[in-house]
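Data availability (excerpt). The following record was deposited with the supplementary files.
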Amino acid sequence: ELHFEPLAKEALSLVVSPSHPLAKLVRVPWNDLMKFQWILQPRGSPMRELLEQEFRSHGSRPPPGLIETSSILTTTNLLAHSEMIAVIPSEVAERYEQHGMLVCLKHQLRQQLGAYGVVTSKARPFSPAAAQLIAFVGDRRTA
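Predicted structure:
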């Protein structure tokens, strides 16, 4: 039998380059987001499924010219040289924003990812390495 231990929810942020026309807006309406190309995770990924739901909840479809990649490096490089919009984990987005590389748009997504965590066997004890990893990740979420 398996046990799922949730560790944290993964919040998402809409991000753009600092020179993007929406970067300095206090609030970004959904219709303004639809005027730009988007970079999304490939189909089948949890983040992509969530964004497909987000588009449907607004009665819209992804804008034309969609680019798919699972690479954060490709995403940040595309953003740096375009007026595209991407969705990445907020924890990652905030680090890039602190270094002036990206801007988190002021728009709250309606959809949110579920918690991520650790799946363990109830029948077997943790190895020392697994116990250490779980303790480390657990400590980080309360920091």
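Summary of structural features: Residues 11-115 form a domain with the D-Maltodextrin-Binding Protein; domain 2 fold (CATH 3.40.190.10).
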